[in-house]
Amino acid sequence: MTTSSHPVPAAPEGGHLTRVAAPEGVSPGTGYSHVVWGTGRFVAVSGQCSFDEKGELVGEGDAAAQARQVFENLRRCLAAAGAGFEDVVKLTYFVTDVAHLPAVRAARDEVIAPDRLPASSAVQVAALFRPELLLEVEAFAIVPVSG
């Protein structure tokens, strides 16, 4: 096990999460935090696609419309666990074309404040489980535990 001589910053007062956009010696991330940690209850949200509550596809051929629906689905899933986007520590984006990432980021920016960006990974995939799907996003969150 490797240990670091660098001090670990404390969580902000009143907060349960700490975000580090640029750890020492690491190039700053653009639009994400390199490291996020916290204390509380862990929540994992399965990858969400752009289906509405009836199971109908939203935004066929439109990455922006699909991304907005995906983030609405994530919001609903997080709420079911007593969480919100402010509790998200990690997002993983699966896109069929990296050209869709600006639309995904725009949808994300509508629901997550720029000073609360989670750690993120983006992966271009050959296909998702249905050919009309352009993206899928999964989330991990840590919800504060009330004492």
Number of strands: 6
Termini gap = 33 Å
Structural class, from helix and strand content?
alpha+beta
Largest sheet: 4 strands, mixed
| Sequence of strands across the biggest β-sheet | 3-6-4-5
Taking Cα atoms only, what radius of gyration do you get, to the nearest Å?
A: 16 Å
How would you summarize this macromolecular structure in one to three sentences?
It contains 2 helices and 6 strands; from the N terminus they run βββαβαββ. The protein has helices spanning 63-80, 101-111; strands at 17-20, 35-38, 41-48, 88-95, 119-124, 135-143.
Describe the structure.
The chain has about 150 residues and is an alpha+beta fold. The chain is built from two helices and six strands, in the order E-E-E-H-E-H-E-E. The protein has helices at about 65-80, 100-110; strands at about 15-20, 35-40, 40-50, 90-95, 120-125, 135-145. Strands 3-6-4-5 form a four-stranded mixed β-sheet. It has a two-stranded antiparallel sheet with strand order 1-2. Helix 2 links the parallel strand 4 and strand 5 (about 120-125).
